[in-house]
Amino acid sequence: MTYYIHADKFFLENTTELGGYLEVQDNGKFGFYYPEENKPTGKIVNYPGKWIAPGYVDTHVHGSLKEDVMKSDWQGIKHLSEGFLRAGVTSWLPTTYTAGADTLTRICQMFGAHKGEETGAKIQGLHFEGPYFTAEHAGAENPKYLLDPDINQFNGWRAASAGLLNKIALAPERKGAKEFIRAATNEGIVVALGHSSATYREAAAGVEAGATMFTHTFNGMPDPSHHAPSISNAAMALNNVTDELICDGHHVKKEMVRALIKVKGPEHIALITDCMEAGMMPDGDYSLGELPVYVKDGMARLKDNDNLAGSILQLKNAVKNVVDWNAATPEEAVMMASYVPAKSAHILDKCGSIAPDKDADFLVLNPDMTLQETYLNGESRYQA
Predict the structure, then answer these.
(1) How far apart are CA 319 and CA 101, in angstroms?
(2) What one-character DSSP code corresponds to residue 225?
(3) Cβ atoms of residues 345 and 352 within 8 Å
(4) pTM of the prediction?
(5) Average pLDDT across the chain, whole number
(6) Which of 130, 184, 160 lies closest to 346, judged by CA?
(7) Do domains 3-53+356-383 and 56-344 have the same CATH topology?
(8) Burial 251-264 (b: 16+ CB within 10 A, else e)
(9) What angle is formed at CA 272 by the lines to CA 184 and CA 73, rounded to 5 degrees?
């Protein structure tokens, strides 16, 4: 049955409205927004004092709840997709790590075989983080599997995924990177640059070849420099690109978060988690791919060298953090966790905003940006 959400604030696709009514149609899609003075007739669900936001979209996430994209079976992935509703995430891109070619093929086949069968947060594609990276900035990526880009190999993985594979991160200084980027983007693939020692010029060449994103900006790359400009400087300076950003306060300090959002504008920042299997779990021992990890004090680190190893961040907390740090307004924070990541991954037609005929995936927020409730296809699926 069609009903209407009545709340104090609505973060719509192109504007933020105070008060009013949002139509949720009986087909699980959004209808129109009506201002306060145009009260519709029909069932009204009241959320006094609450704000309504689009469901968040995590385009770079490896796991949570002891589940991991690289090693969980399909039942584990379904468990993960259900669990993400607790984080305010209604759409996501399962993200791989660098691994052997056969392992990546097997993962693609699993997701391709079960396409559309998840019952929680919706899988809107598959994101390969690697294996075309640079060893110096591999971070928690296993260096023994690093390769030069190969479009034929990549297209083999795409075929195995039944076309689900739609995003890849790579190092632009690898041999053949420009040619790979050009070919991949011509096929509609989103290419991000990261885990790289690239100079500014090498990164700029990758962007001019078609790359449109930077992978977890400032992590897995040299620091910005005023004498030897690097890929980090390129992420800050280049036009028309989207920068992924991990806002847990550990990967990038809040002062640098504020600086990047200020220089790029929130319309070019995609909040991501890079969360691994320890998300929503207690401190202790875990793994990242084949590498042992320990979690303590809100951080996941590799046991052998103490490098940061992904995060345990939930996207709802990243949104709250950037507001609490005065790095963004609530409106901007919501946009950076929904509209921008969806647009950057070419999935804005499916998710990322409140607009007529899109799936009614939305959140009920408290004014302090904490999550109260998660709706999927117009049905309440999680209450805090």
Answers:
(1) 35
(2) -
(3) no
(4) 0.97
(5) 96
(6) 184
(7) no
(8) bbeeebbeebbeeb
(9) 75
Which one has a higher pLDDT value, 254 or 302? 254
- Confidence band of 304 (pLDDT split at 50, 70, 90): confident
User: 226 is written with which tokens?
Assistant: 């005023």
Could you tell me which CATH class the domain 56-344 is placed in? alpha beta
pLDDT, tens digit (0-9, with 9 covering 90-100), for 166-191: 999 999 999 999 999 999 999 999 99
Q: Where are the domains of the chain?
A: 3-53+356-383, 56-344
Q: Classify domain 3-53+356-383 by CATH number.
A: 2.30.40.10
For 71, residues 6+ apart whose C-beta sits below 8 A from its C-beta are: none
Digit-coded pLDDT (tens) for 100-115: 999 999 999 999 999 9
Catalytic residue among 243, 274, 359, 361: 274
Q: Is 359 a catalytic residue?
A: no
Query: pLDDT value at position 141?
Result: 72
